[in-house]
Input
Amino acid sequence: MVSATSPLPPSSGPLADLKVIEMGQLIAGPFAAKTLADFGAEVIKIESPKSGDPLRVWRVMHEGTSLWWQVQSRNKKSLSLDLRQKEGQDIVRELIKNADVLIENFRPGTLESWGMGPEDLLKINPRLIVLRISGYGQTGPYKDKPGFGVIAEAMGGMRHLTAEPGRVPVRVGISIGDTLAALHGVIGILMSLHERNRSGKGQVIDVALYEAVFNCMESLLPEYSLKGIVREAAGSALPGIAPTNAYRCKDNAYALIAGNGDSIYKRLMHAIGRDDLGQDPELSDNTGRVSRVNEIDQAISDWSAKLSVDDVLQILDSAEVPAGKIYNIADISQDPHYIARGMIEKLTLKDGSQLDVPGVVPKLSRTPGHRPKLAPELGEDTHATLKSIGISDEQIKILLDKGIVSMSQQHS
Output
């Protein structure tokens, strides 16, 4: 049985001894920090005293806070701190002394302008691992350009492929470029921690949004390099692999069918009553099927058009052919497999409302991730964090009066 998420406190997680300082906002850097927090890392998120992370007010709101916020910032602490002020920068330097990881996704040069570039911080803490996420990386002719995930998706090659042939390319409906960069950043952190066990030294991880996207572009470059092939948009099909596509059913829903394995293809053709195609020696491997993909797709489409999507999936499940329907979020939230694997977790908001949030991935058998904790209010952990580095109540009051820090109402 797969373990979902653990009710144990974060101090017992696989990253429980990891202290992370997050100096980013919106998506890429915070998603990387959220992933570490899900597995027990102590993540101190530094936010502007006046407004905090802009994500707090993005998309759908509830009681003045974005519902997205409860996903992106769960399991974190909020330190509200003005990084533009010297006193704020000095507090960061104190925090860095005992930190393992710093995550930042400012434009290149921002940390350096505050006297907190990686070279400066590594002098304070030689074991520090610094993850820097930016649109184009810390070097190169584009490094100073502003870069968001949507631009990276285009530059990385993804947007060119996301369309029906001859139609305008469309974006994936989520911030996939930012998320890919964040996950590459987490990989970099874990590799750096492993290496630090040998060397005792920290290092800098430079993740560019466009490079994270480009790294997932499979065979695009070698096909162009040696054969001059520029892969074009192909809608729901995957060029060079057959059959795999979305097929319209009688109820106007679509069944996604992946019959591209040699034995799977034969089972698929038998299931749809086309053994003539299934036993055709020319179609026994992928190369032959690609050359006649239109014929095969038409045969599958003719069959699926006579059945509902549920009937199609039932038949193909019985034939052990990979197939599925296109889920919307209502489908996801009610699906028994999602529920059985702990992928729908429940939070109780401060007004008593029940909120479903995604569960933790990946699944670890012995040290799983933790049930999500509510995302913090702005400045919720300012007082405790400042006290932890030796700042007195009197000094905290001075910082509050100057506007260098702030606290949530219940902690002020």
